[in-house]
Amino acid sequence: MKIDGIHYRSVWVDRDDGWSVRIFDQTKLPWAIEILRLTDADQAAHAIRTMQTRGAPLIGAVAAYGVALAMRADASTAHLDRVVEMLGKTRPTAINLRWALERMRAALHNLSPADRVAAAYAEAAAICDDDVETCRRIGEHGLPLLREIAARKGPDQRVNVLTHCNAGWLATVDYGTALSPIFQAHDEGLNVHVWVDETRPRNQGAALTAFELVKHGVPHTVVADNAGGHLMQHGEVDICIVGTDRVTRQGDVANKIGTYLKALAAKDNGVPFWVALPHSTLDMRARDGVAEIPIEERAEAEVTDLTGRAADGRIETIRVVAEGSPAANPAFDVTPARLVTGLITERGRTEASEAGLRALYPEKA
Protein backbone atom coordinates (compact mmCIF):
# COMPACT_ATOMS: atom_id res chain seq x y z
CA MET A 1 0.00 0.00 0.00
CA LYS A 2 1.07 3.57 -0.56
CA ILE A 3 0.22 6.64 1.49
CA ASP A 4 1.31 9.88 -0.13
CA GLY A 5 3.72 7.95 -2.34
CA ILE A 6 5.38 6.02 0.50
CA HIS A 7 4.96 2.24 0.64
CA TYR A 8 3.89 0.70 3.94
CA ARG A 9 2.78 -2.60 5.31
CA SER A 10 0.19 -2.54 8.08
CA VAL A 11 2.63 -4.05 10.59
CA TRP A 12 6.43 -4.00 10.57
CA VAL A 13 9.48 -4.26 12.80
CA ASP A 14 10.95 -0.86 13.67
CA ARG A 15 13.78 -0.12 11.27
CA ASP A 16 15.81 1.77 13.89
CA ASP A 17 15.85 -0.52 16.91
CA GLY A 18 15.24 -3.77 15.00
CA TRP A 19 12.87 -5.33 17.56
CA SER A 20 9.84 -3.18 18.47
CA VAL A 21 6.75 -3.41 16.28
CA ARG A 22 4.97 -0.61 14.43
CA ILE A 23 1.31 -0.42 13.47
CA PHE A 24 -1.10 2.29 12.35
CA ASP A 25 -3.54 3.46 15.01
CA GLN A 26 -6.69 2.77 12.99
CA THR A 27 -8.91 4.44 15.57
CA LYS A 28 -7.40 7.76 14.45
CA LEU A 29 -8.01 7.23 10.73
CA PRO A 30 -8.99 8.96 8.52
CA TRP A 31 -8.50 12.12 10.57
CA ALA A 32 -4.84 11.53 11.40
CA ILE A 33 -2.13 9.06 10.42
CA GLU A 34 -0.49 7.98 13.66
CA ILE A 35 1.96 5.11 14.03
CA LEU A 36 2.11 3.19 17.31
CA ARG A 37 5.18 1.45 18.75
CA LEU A 38 4.53 -1.88 20.47
CA THR A 39 7.16 -3.12 22.90
CA ASP A 40 5.46 -6.02 24.71
CA ALA A 41 2.65 -8.54 24.38
CA ASP A 42 0.29 -6.56 26.61
CA GLN A 43 0.49 -3.60 24.23
CA ALA A 44 -0.18 -5.90 21.28
CA ALA A 45 -3.22 -7.33 23.08
CA HIS A 46 -4.50 -3.85 23.90
CA ALA A 47 -4.12 -2.75 20.27
CA ILE A 48 -6.11 -5.76 19.09
CA ARG A 49 -8.79 -5.51 21.76
CA THR A 50 -9.40 -1.78 21.24
CA MET A 51 -9.23 -2.07 17.43
CA GLN A 52 -6.23 0.17 17.10
CA THR A 53 -5.30 -2.68 14.80
CA ARG A 54 -8.10 -4.70 13.21
CA GLY A 55 -9.01 -6.92 10.29
CA ALA A 56 -8.93 -10.71 10.60
CA PRO A 57 -5.59 -11.38 8.85
CA LEU A 58 -3.87 -8.38 10.43
CA ILE A 59 -4.74 -9.17 14.03
CA GLY A 60 -3.23 -12.61 13.51
CA ALA A 61 -0.01 -11.03 12.26
CA VAL A 62 0.12 -8.50 15.11
CA ALA A 63 -0.53 -11.26 17.64
CA ALA A 64 2.35 -13.24 16.14
CA TYR A 65 4.67 -10.30 16.74
CA GLY A 66 3.17 -10.01 20.22
CA VAL A 67 4.50 -13.49 20.92
CA ALA A 68 7.92 -12.45 19.60
CA LEU A 69 7.95 -9.43 21.91
CA ALA A 70 6.97 -11.67 24.82
CA MET A 71 9.87 -14.03 24.14
CA ARG A 72 12.27 -11.10 24.55
CA ALA A 73 11.10 -10.70 28.14
CA ASP A 74 10.74 -14.37 29.06
CA ALA A 75 11.34 -17.24 26.64
CA SER A 76 10.16 -20.00 28.97
CA THR A 77 7.56 -22.52 27.84
CA ALA A 78 5.19 -21.47 30.62
CA HIS A 79 5.34 -17.84 29.48
CA LEU A 80 4.86 -18.84 25.84
CA ASP A 81 1.70 -20.74 26.74
CA ARG A 82 0.37 -17.89 28.91
CA VAL A 83 0.94 -15.29 26.19
CA VAL A 84 -0.68 -17.40 23.47
CA GLU A 85 -3.73 -17.90 25.70
CA MET A 86 -3.89 -14.21 26.63
CA LEU A 87 -3.65 -12.96 23.04
CA GLY A 88 -6.14 -15.56 21.88
CA LYS A 89 -8.84 -14.11 24.15
CA THR A 90 -8.66 -10.58 22.73
CA ARG A 91 -11.21 -11.15 19.95
CA PRO A 92 -13.26 -14.33 19.55
CA THR A 93 -14.75 -14.31 16.05
CA ALA A 94 -11.82 -13.98 13.62
CA ILE A 95 -10.23 -17.43 13.28
CA ASN A 96 -7.00 -15.93 11.86
CA LEU A 97 -6.02 -14.96 15.39
CA ARG A 98 -6.11 -18.55 16.63
CA TRP A 99 -4.47 -19.78 13.42
CA ALA A 100 -1.50 -17.43 13.81
CA LEU A 101 -1.06 -18.16 17.52
CA GLU A 102 -1.21 -21.92 16.98
CA ARG A 103 1.40 -21.56 14.25
CA MET A 104 3.64 -19.54 16.56
CA ARG A 105 3.29 -22.04 19.41
CA ALA A 106 4.08 -24.96 17.08
CA ALA A 107 7.17 -23.20 15.73
CA LEU A 108 8.56 -22.38 19.17
CA HIS A 109 7.43 -25.06 21.57
CA ASN A 110 10.14 -27.62 20.86
CA LEU A 111 12.98 -25.10 20.72
CA SER A 112 15.25 -24.23 23.59
CA PRO A 113 14.46 -20.87 25.24
CA ALA A 114 17.77 -19.50 23.94
CA ASP A 115 16.58 -20.00 20.35
CA ARG A 116 13.03 -18.77 20.71
CA VAL A 117 13.44 -15.01 20.24
CA ALA A 118 15.06 -15.22 16.83
CA ALA A 119 12.71 -18.01 15.76
CA ALA A 120 9.66 -16.04 16.91
CA TYR A 121 10.60 -12.98 14.85
CA ALA A 122 11.32 -15.18 11.84
CA GLU A 123 7.99 -16.99 12.14
CA ALA A 124 6.03 -13.75 12.59
CA ALA A 125 7.76 -12.32 9.50
CA ALA A 126 6.88 -15.49 7.57
CA ILE A 127 3.22 -15.13 8.59
CA CYS A 128 3.27 -11.55 7.27
CA ASP A 129 4.95 -12.51 4.00
CA ASP A 130 2.46 -15.34 3.54
CA ASP A 131 -0.43 -12.91 4.03
CA VAL A 132 0.95 -10.46 1.47
CA GLU A 133 1.33 -13.15 -1.19
CA THR A 134 -2.05 -14.66 -0.32
CA CYS A 135 -3.81 -11.31 -0.75
CA ARG A 136 -2.00 -10.58 -4.00
CA ARG A 137 -3.21 -13.90 -5.40
CA ILE A 138 -6.76 -13.31 -4.17
CA GLY A 139 -6.67 -10.16 -6.29
CA GLU A 140 -5.45 -12.09 -9.30
CA HIS A 141 -8.25 -14.65 -8.99
CA GLY A 142 -10.93 -12.04 -8.38
CA LEU A 143 -9.84 -9.74 -11.21
CA PRO A 144 -11.40 -11.89 -14.00
CA LEU A 145 -14.83 -11.39 -12.43
CA LEU A 146 -14.50 -7.64 -12.93
CA ARG A 147 -13.00 -8.04 -16.40
CA GLU A 148 -16.01 -10.15 -17.45
CA ILE A 149 -18.44 -7.49 -16.27
CA ALA A 150 -16.45 -4.75 -18.01
CA ALA A 151 -16.41 -6.71 -21.26
CA ARG A 152 -20.16 -7.29 -21.08
CA LYS A 153 -21.02 -3.67 -20.31
CA GLY A 154 -18.57 -2.03 -22.67
CA PRO A 155 -15.77 0.50 -22.11
CA ASP A 156 -18.07 3.49 -21.54
CA GLN A 157 -19.95 1.83 -18.67
CA ARG A 158 -18.47 1.57 -15.20
CA VAL A 159 -18.28 -1.65 -13.22
CA ASN A 160 -20.10 -1.03 -9.93
CA VAL A 161 -18.87 -3.04 -6.96
CA LEU A 162 -20.54 -2.92 -3.54
CA THR A 163 -18.45 -3.80 -0.50
CA HIS A 164 -19.11 -3.86 3.23
CA CYS A 165 -16.80 -2.93 6.09
CA ASN A 166 -13.04 -2.76 5.38
CA ALA A 167 -11.24 -5.63 3.69
CA GLY A 168 -8.37 -3.69 2.17
CA TRP A 169 -4.74 -3.29 3.10
CA LEU A 170 -5.62 -1.86 6.51
CA ALA A 171 -7.26 -5.19 7.38
CA THR A 172 -4.33 -7.29 6.16
CA VAL A 173 -0.58 -6.90 5.95
CA ASP A 174 -0.86 -5.56 2.38
CA TYR A 175 -3.17 -5.59 -0.70
CA GLY A 176 -6.33 -6.59 1.18
CA THR A 177 -8.81 -9.36 0.41
CA ALA A 178 -12.07 -7.98 -1.03
CA LEU A 179 -10.34 -4.82 -2.22
CA SER A 180 -7.37 -6.59 -3.82
CA PRO A 181 -9.26 -7.39 -7.08
CA ILE A 182 -10.56 -3.81 -7.13
CA PHE A 183 -7.10 -2.27 -6.76
CA GLN A 184 -5.77 -4.55 -9.49
CA ALA A 185 -8.71 -3.75 -11.78
CA HIS A 186 -8.15 -0.03 -11.31
CA ASP A 187 -4.42 -0.38 -11.95
CA GLU A 188 -5.22 -2.29 -15.15
CA GLY A 189 -7.34 0.58 -16.39
CA LEU A 190 -10.81 -0.87 -15.88
CA ASN A 191 -13.58 1.64 -15.28
CA VAL A 192 -14.37 0.40 -11.77
CA HIS A 193 -16.44 2.25 -9.16
CA VAL A 194 -17.07 1.14 -5.57
CA TRP A 195 -20.19 1.64 -3.48
CA VAL A 196 -18.76 1.85 0.06
CA ASP A 197 -21.15 0.89 2.86
CA GLU A 198 -20.57 3.19 5.82
CA THR A 199 -20.63 0.07 8.06
CA ARG A 200 -22.10 1.16 11.34
CA PRO A 201 -21.46 1.18 14.19
CA ARG A 202 -17.71 1.85 13.80
CA ASN A 203 -17.94 3.19 10.23
CA GLN A 204 -15.02 1.14 8.92
CA GLY A 205 -16.31 1.60 5.40
CA ALA A 206 -16.74 5.36 5.54
CA ALA A 207 -13.52 5.86 7.52
CA LEU A 208 -11.13 3.14 6.35
CA THR A 209 -12.25 1.73 3.01
CA ALA A 210 -12.92 5.23 1.68
CA PHE A 211 -9.50 6.33 2.98
CA GLU A 212 -7.80 3.49 1.11
CA LEU A 213 -9.69 4.16 -2.11
CA VAL A 214 -8.86 7.87 -1.94
CA LYS A 215 -5.18 7.11 -1.49
CA HIS A 216 -5.23 4.68 -4.41
CA GLY A 217 -7.31 6.94 -6.66
CA VAL A 218 -10.21 4.51 -7.09
CA PRO A 219 -13.59 6.15 -7.88
CA HIS A 220 -16.09 5.44 -5.12
CA THR A 221 -19.18 6.69 -3.31
CA VAL A 222 -19.97 6.23 0.38
CA VAL A 223 -23.58 5.17 1.03
CA ALA A 224 -25.68 4.52 4.10
CA ASP A 225 -25.74 0.87 5.10
CA ASN A 226 -29.40 0.52 4.17
CA ALA A 227 -28.94 1.91 0.64
CA GLY A 228 -27.49 -1.29 -0.85
CA GLY A 229 -30.80 -3.00 -1.55
CA HIS A 230 -32.17 0.10 -3.27
CA LEU A 231 -29.07 0.33 -5.47
CA MET A 232 -29.41 -3.32 -6.45
CA GLN A 233 -33.10 -2.93 -7.32
CA HIS A 234 -32.18 -0.16 -9.76
CA GLY A 235 -29.35 -2.02 -11.46
CA GLU A 236 -26.61 0.09 -9.87
CA VAL A 237 -24.64 -2.86 -8.45
CA ASP A 238 -22.94 -5.37 -10.74
CA ILE A 239 -21.25 -7.45 -8.06
CA CYS A 240 -20.78 -7.56 -4.28
CA ILE A 241 -17.37 -8.49 -2.89
CA VAL A 242 -16.82 -8.68 0.86
CA GLY A 243 -14.18 -10.03 3.18
CA THR A 244 -14.63 -12.48 6.02
CA ASP A 245 -13.46 -13.24 9.55
CA ARG A 246 -14.26 -16.95 9.49
CA VAL A 247 -15.59 -19.44 6.92
CA THR A 248 -16.84 -22.87 7.98
CA ARG A 249 -16.19 -26.06 6.04
CA GLN A 250 -19.67 -25.90 4.45
CA GLY A 251 -19.06 -22.33 3.25
CA ASP A 252 -20.95 -20.26 5.83
CA VAL A 253 -19.34 -16.83 6.17
CA ALA A 254 -18.92 -14.66 9.27
CA ASN A 255 -18.30 -11.01 8.46
CA LYS A 256 -19.07 -7.56 9.83
CA ILE A 257 -22.64 -7.09 11.03
CA GLY A 258 -24.91 -6.22 8.11
CA THR A 259 -23.25 -8.55 5.60
CA TYR A 260 -26.12 -11.04 5.86
CA LEU A 261 -28.65 -8.37 4.86
CA LYS A 262 -26.57 -7.44 1.81
CA ALA A 263 -26.41 -11.09 0.78
CA LEU A 264 -30.20 -11.37 1.06
CA ALA A 265 -30.69 -8.28 -1.10
CA ALA A 266 -28.17 -9.58 -3.63
CA LYS A 267 -29.96 -12.93 -3.85
CA ASP A 268 -33.32 -11.24 -4.37
CA ASN A 269 -31.94 -9.06 -7.16
CA GLY A 270 -29.73 -11.58 -8.94
CA VAL A 271 -26.50 -9.77 -8.02
CA PRO A 272 -23.43 -12.02 -7.61
CA PHE A 273 -22.24 -12.11 -4.00
CA TRP A 274 -18.57 -13.10 -3.67
CA VAL A 275 -16.47 -13.51 -0.54
CA ALA A 276 -12.69 -13.06 -0.54
CA LEU A 277 -11.17 -15.80 1.61
CA PRO A 278 -7.52 -16.21 2.66
CA HIS A 279 -6.57 -19.70 3.84
CA SER A 280 -6.03 -18.43 7.40
CA THR A 281 -9.75 -17.58 7.64
CA LEU A 282 -10.94 -21.12 6.90
CA ASP A 283 -12.20 -23.03 9.94
CA MET A 284 -12.68 -26.66 8.94
CA ARG A 285 -13.52 -27.56 12.55
CA ALA A 286 -16.84 -25.71 12.30
CA ARG A 287 -19.69 -26.67 9.98
CA ASP A 288 -22.81 -24.65 10.83
CA GLY A 289 -21.75 -21.01 11.05
CA VAL A 290 -24.91 -19.72 12.73
CA ALA A 291 -24.72 -22.34 15.45
CA GLU A 292 -20.96 -22.64 15.92
CA ILE A 293 -19.19 -19.34 15.22
CA PRO A 294 -18.87 -17.18 18.37
CA ILE A 295 -20.14 -13.65 17.72
CA GLU A 296 -18.29 -10.89 19.53
CA GLU A 297 -20.48 -8.48 21.49
CA ARG A 298 -18.80 -5.11 21.75
CA ALA A 299 -19.39 -2.03 23.89
CA GLU A 300 -22.68 -0.09 23.79
CA ALA A 301 -20.76 3.15 23.21
CA GLU A 302 -19.88 2.08 19.67
CA VAL A 303 -23.61 2.27 18.88
CA THR A 304 -24.61 5.22 21.04
CA ASP A 305 -21.68 7.51 20.17
CA LEU A 306 -20.07 8.74 16.95
CA THR A 307 -16.67 10.33 16.38
CA GLY A 308 -15.94 12.77 13.58
CA ARG A 309 -14.45 16.08 12.58
CA ALA A 310 -16.36 19.17 13.70
CA ALA A 311 -16.73 22.29 11.54
CA ASP A 312 -13.82 23.94 13.34
CA GLY A 313 -11.53 20.99 12.64
CA ARG A 314 -11.64 19.41 16.09
CA ILE A 315 -12.20 15.65 16.41
CA GLU A 316 -15.17 15.13 18.70
CA THR A 317 -17.26 12.25 19.99
CA ILE A 318 -20.98 12.88 20.36
CA ARG A 319 -23.93 10.82 21.57
CA VAL A 320 -26.59 10.09 18.93
CA VAL A 321 -28.94 7.85 20.93
CA ALA A 322 -31.59 9.07 23.36
CA GLU A 323 -30.39 9.26 26.94
CA GLY A 324 -31.47 6.27 28.94
CA SER A 325 -31.73 3.95 25.93
CA PRO A 326 -29.60 0.79 26.10
CA ALA A 327 -27.85 -0.54 22.99
CA ALA A 328 -26.83 -3.98 21.74
CA ASN A 329 -23.73 -4.35 19.60
CA PRO A 330 -23.14 -7.74 17.94
CA ALA A 331 -20.05 -7.14 15.83
CA PHE A 332 -20.59 -9.86 13.21
CA ASP A 333 -23.28 -11.90 11.52
CA VAL A 334 -23.21 -15.14 9.54
CA THR A 335 -24.21 -15.41 5.89
CA PRO A 336 -25.25 -18.99 5.05
CA ALA A 337 -23.46 -20.64 2.14
CA ARG A 338 -26.69 -20.77 0.10
CA LEU A 339 -26.53 -16.98 -0.30
CA VAL A 340 -22.88 -16.90 -1.41
CA THR A 341 -22.18 -17.05 -5.13
CA GLY A 342 -18.62 -18.19 -4.53
CA LEU A 343 -15.36 -17.80 -2.64
CA ILE A 344 -12.25 -16.07 -3.99
CA THR A 345 -9.13 -17.64 -2.50
CA GLU A 346 -5.40 -17.50 -3.16
CA ARG A 347 -5.77 -20.90 -4.86
CA GLY A 348 -8.62 -19.91 -7.14
CA ARG A 349 -12.39 -19.47 -7.04
CA THR A 350 -14.83 -22.07 -5.78
CA GLU A 351 -18.43 -22.52 -4.78
CA ALA A 352 -19.25 -22.01 -1.12
CA SER A 353 -19.51 -25.68 -0.20
CA GLU A 354 -17.64 -28.38 1.67
CA ALA A 355 -16.79 -30.12 -1.60
CA GLY A 356 -15.43 -26.92 -3.10
CA LEU A 357 -13.30 -26.08 -0.08
CA ARG A 358 -11.97 -29.62 0.28
CA ALA A 359 -10.95 -29.60 -3.39
CA LEU A 360 -8.93 -26.40 -2.90
CA TYR A 361 -7.56 -27.27 0.56
CA PRO A 362 -7.21 -31.06 0.77
CA GLU A 363 -4.57 -30.73 3.48
CA LYS A 364 -7.11 -29.02 5.77
CA ALA A 365 -9.75 -31.74 5.32
UniProtKB/TrEMBL annotation:
Pathway: Amino-acid biosynthesis; L-methionine biosynthesis via salvage pathway; L-methionine from S-methyl-5-thio-alpha-D-ribose 1-phosphate: step 1/6. Pfam families: IF-2B. This is Methylthioribose-1-phosphate isomerase. Belongs to the EIF-2B alpha/beta/delta subunits family. MtnA subfamily. SUPFAM superfamilies: NagB/RpiA/CoA transferase-like. GO terms for molecular function: S-methyl-5-thioribose-1-phosphate isomerase activity. Catalyzes the interconversion of methylthioribose-1-phosphate (MTR-1-P) into methylthioribulose-1-phosphate (MTRu-1-P). Also catalyzes the interconversion of 5-deoxyribose 1-phosphate and 5-deoxyribulose 1-phosphate. Part of a bifunctional DHAP-shunt salvage pathway for SAM by-products. One of its GO terms (biological process) is L-methionine salvage from methylthioadenosine.
